[in-house]
Amino acid sequence: MSLTLRPHIAGMPPYRAGRSPKPGPDGRAWKVSSNENPYGPLPGVLEAVARSLEEMNRYPDAGNTEMTSALATRHGLDEERLAFGTGSVEVLAHLLEATCGPGDEVVYAWRSFEAYPLAVQVLGARSVQVPLTATGEHDLDAMRAAITPRTRAVMVCTPNNPTGPAIPHDDLVTFLESVPDDILVIVDEAYVEYVNDPCATRGLELLDVHPGVVSLRTFSKAYGLAALRVGWMAAADTEIARAVRSVTMPFAISSPAQVAVLASLEAEPELIGRVRVTIHERDRIAEELRRLGHRIPATQGNFVWFPAGELTHVWFDAFREAGLMTRAFAGEGLRVSIAEPDANDRILEVAGTLLR
């Protein structure tokens, strides 16, 4: 090929999506590799989407007007602080695009969300990965020490994907107060709806702590709109949100996706009920796994983390043979999503055999 690719793009691996499962011995299979919501759309969503399809010959609202108004009202925010994208990962990419370039540094904990190093690499920037603690938590002191004059952004994931712990709110406030004002701080709260620890980070409150803070959220998880791809952000500085809106492709979010968001927001009582069920199952599974002897970190997401180390591939195969497709991180561990009760019971059955 005569075309020359940019050096940091050539050979760059694609994002690795969760794989589909194969049936176990009883013919049943569950995908617990992608932290998806196991339940269908909330009441009213399918009807709203169907109505929107009648006008698929028209472009969607490029300004996301109704979504912006609805979220601003719900959270008491200035509309100019908000921006949207096709999933929170796209909003993240646009935030980095607006602030980072070749040679700049981005600090984040590791292991964390797999898209982080890819989003940094595509810009020619450099990842500065700070190891998690032994309990799968962010080491905020080490992250602060990793900030240099070349640092343009810091990313924190709370609850952390894939390990599960949420960052205590007061600890993150103290951290932010020590971060220079000219650094973007992205607080990735993709799983915020599942958080029930009163001491955990409250991202929208951080907008008053540091001028570069952004709270990043999604409708893919608790709201069950993963296939429609809608993420959003709220920024401390309206200029940050304006920059993201400027680099986002026009008409990025489809009309069906926009109306699905609005209908989902109207179904808040049903959402709360479903989230409570998932939290109950998460806590039940984590408690039972610890009783079995597994070192499961405290989790505030819709998943649990098995720190399997060198046994990761062996445990992955054990789950797979039982009809459960998990997410494996070679040499580190497995992330297992909370699913339907039958799947969760199967997870416990398999987990009970792994330490024998």
TrEMBL record:
Q: Which parts pass through the membrane?
A: none
- Positions of the UniProt region annotated as Disordered: 1-36
Q: Which reaction does it catalyse?
A: an aromatic L-alpha-amino acid + 2-oxoglutarate = an aromatic oxo-acid + L-glutamate
The PTM N6-(pyridoxal phosphate)lysine maps to: K221
Task: Give GO terms: molecular function aspect only.
Answer: aromatic-amino-acid transaminase activity; histidinol-phosphate transaminase activity; pyridoxal phosphate binding
What are the EC numbers? 2.6.1.57
Identify the residues that the record assigns to the Aminotransferase class I/classII large domain, covering every copy.
32-340
The record, for InterPro entries, names:
Aminotrans_II_pyridoxalP_BS (IPR001917), Aminotransferase_I/II_large (IPR004839), ArAT (IPR024892), HisP_aminotrans (IPR005861), HistidinolP_aminotransfase (IPR050106), PyrdxlP-dep_Trfase (IPR015424), PyrdxlP-dep_Trfase_major (IPR015421), PyrdxlP-dep_Trfase_small (IPR015422)
Names of required cofactors: pyridoxal 5'-phosphate
Q: Supply the alphabetized keyword list.
A: Aminotransferase, Pyridoxal phosphate, Transferase
Q: Which Pfam families match?
A: Aminotran_1_2 (PF00155)
GO biological process: what's one of them? L-histidine biosynthetic process
Give the protein's function: Aminotransferase that catalyzes the conversion of aromatic amino acids and 2-oxoglutarate into corresponding aromatic oxo acids and L-glutamate.
Q: Which HAMAP family is this protein grouped with?
A: HisC_aminotrans_2 (MF_01023), Phe_aminotrans_2 (MF_01513)
Return the PANTHER family for the record: HISTIDINOL-PHOSPHATE AMINOTRANSFERASE, HISTIDINOL-PHOSPHATE AMINOTRANSFERASE 2
Family the entry assigns:
Belongs to the class-II pyridoxal-phosphate-dependent aminotransferase family.
Q: How does it assemble?
A: Homodimer.
Q: What is the protein name stated in its UniProt record?
A: Aromatic amino acid aminotransferase
**Organism of origin:** Raineyella fluvialis
Lineage of the native species?
Bacteria, Bacillati, Actinomycetota, Actinomycetes, Propionibacteriales
State the gene name recorded for this protein. pat
